[in-house]
Specification:
With 351 residues, the chain is α/β, with parallel strands linked by helices. It has a single domain, classed as 3-Layer(aba) Sandwich (Rossmann fold). Helix content is 43%, strand content 14%. It contains 13 helices and 13 strands. Helix 3 links the parallel strand 2 and strand 3.
Length: 351
């Protein structure tokens, strides 16, 4: 994998949305480690504990707690600020939550994206904008084929549909208002890593169950997902932003996920690895007959390798081991920030 260009990030004025979330907190820690001046824009953390609080991310960035569903609030939060690059990660990211609250999901994922892009139109120094969507933006017919960037967009559940709609919003704004500034989307796989305490997330559910001495409950153990460690995911996003800011020919949409040709790993297989690493009970199966979750999902990330020289370093077993090591050590009393920085440094050294 091509190493990140730390000199590119040193001193960069970065707007990072979603910095209070799991991936966003990791991104804030890594970006500030490389010398970036980060402004965060997000709602307060929606779970306790949160990596944002445990790692004291608010002390590392200019943290602005704003609801992206409010156009006026977004504009006011960015007024007078100048940014070089933007990484938009704020979202409602849970499929089950989208089924419970479809309107809120569309407001956050679609209109929140539109409000941000509208507020960025007058930025005088902008070099690149990257909007994070999802591997679920593709129209999934359950054929098992890995989706490529040119495949049709779709989404049978509100979360997937909202992310596909966000892709169209981004394309519209890019062509209408940002002809001189590259605005692109990144479609990432299912991300795991230490510090995720969200509701209805597999790794977080495993950690909670083991801590309570219970068996984690799986609804779809046979389902396959493009699992990716948070460091692989973020490294891909950062490399993509470097390319967008320096190469006018950089594509405007890329997939990020496991190495092309790697093995498919089911929910049950990943849960088994997780509970074994933490010494928990075997998982328990409870079917969900009304679920809209796709059974098979895979994305082809070969274009990121061909264009950016980037591919994931960690296969699923290594990603799970690194993730569970973080949780075990944090539960034993080690600091969340120190654990994140240690794993980032090891990842950079391997690259």
């Amino acid at each position: 994998m091509a190493a990140l260009n730390a000199s590119f990030w040193n001193g960069k004025r970065v707007l990072l949305t979603g910095h209070t979330g799991f991936k966003g907190a990791w991104a804030a820690i890594w970006l500030t480690r490389m010398g970036a001046e980060v402004t965060g824009l997000a709602l307060p953390p929606d779970q306790t504990p949160s990596l944002f609080d445990l790692a004291e991310v608010g002390h590392r960035v200019d943290s602005r707690l704003v609801d992206l569903r409010s156009h006026g609030a977004v504009g006011a939060a960015l007024s007078g600020r100048v940014f070089d690059v933007v990484l938009h990660m704020a979202a409602q990211p849970i499929v089950r939550a989208s089924i419970e609250d479809p309107i809120g999901t569309f407001q956050t994922n679609v209109m929140g994206t539109a409000h941000l892009l509208q507020a960025l139109r007058d930025q005088p120094a902008l070099q690149a904008v990257l909007v994070i969507t999802s591997d679920k933006v593709y129209a999934n017919n359950e054929a098992g084929r890995a989706f490529r960037e040119g495949d049709n967009l779709g989404g049978k559940d509100p979360y997937s549909a909202s992310k596909a709609a966000a892709e169209i919003v981004v394309q519209s704004y890019a062509r209408s208002y940002f002809q001189a500034v590259p605005v692109a989307t990144a479609r990432g796989g299912n991300v795991i890593g230490g510090g995720d305490f969200s509701r209805d997330r597999l790794v977080a559910d495993i950690v909670r169950a083991v801590g309570a001495g219970e068996a984690v409950v799986l609804r779809h153990p046979e389902a396959t997902r493009p699992w990716q460690h948070v460091l692989d995911c973020l490294a891909g996003y950062f490399r993509y932003l470097e390319a967008l800011a320096t190469d006018p020919a950089a594509p405007r949409a890329l997939n990020f996920g496991p190495r092309p040709g790697g093995p498919q790993v089911s929910v049950g297989e990943l849960a088994t690895l997780g509970v074994e690493a933490l010494g928990g009970q075997p998982w328990r199966y409870e079917p969900d007959p009304v679920s809209l979750e796709a059974q098979t999902l895979a994305i082809d990330a070969s274009r990121a390798r061909e264009i950016l020289g980037f591919e994931s370093q960690l296969d699923a077993p290594h990603a799970v081991a690194l993730t569970m090591d973080w949780y075990a050590r944090q539960a034993a009393g080690e600091g969340a920030l120190a654990l994140c920085l240690e794993q980032i440094e090891r990842y950079e050294s391997a690259a």
